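Case study 2.
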Amino acid sequence: MSTLIRSSGDFHVDRQYDFVELLLAEKDFHAAFDLLQSLVDRVPNWAWGWYKLGEVAHVLGRMDVAQTSWERVIALDDTDPYGAGAMLNLMGVRDDDQMPAHFIETLFDQYADRFDTSLVQKLEYTVPERLGVAVSELHPDRFKATLDLGCGTGDGWGRVSASFRSSQWRRSFARYAAPSAKARDLRHLVQGRCIATAAFGSACV
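Prediction:
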């Protein structure tokens, strides 16, 4: 599982950062900005602190500070798990072709434990059921195997598995999803990421 590291490594700074979150909840952005600025001055290698400083600066219209803060995040960790590069793209400072793989994986991992509930219950996602019915009607004898290029939770497979006879290969975006996928009786789970290719669909690596 990919987790976001928010700690500065300094207990006292982390405690003060808790107060930053309270200020943000109260929408006191100016006070939060000032406190964050003092904290990153004390712990200059704290990537999460710089990322949050960039966020608050952006809200306040301090685009120069937002840019330098997010650039500092990437300088500290070029895998960019916080998505600072994406924020710089939105500012027009960068023009990356795609978001960093580590950011996408980390983002999904933070969401994976409630992904199925949000998708099925809140968004009323019904594609797996409809696909299962269609496959059963077109090929009632069932397939020996299928390749599911999915998110890795196993939700889709659990709803169409009656149409398939034995094994299934699944390519997953996130390590975190593997336990829930295995609980749904997936025979093989492979982590990977799909990269769009020009006019020819997609390639998975």
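Confidence is low (pLDDT under 50) at residues 166-179, 195-205.
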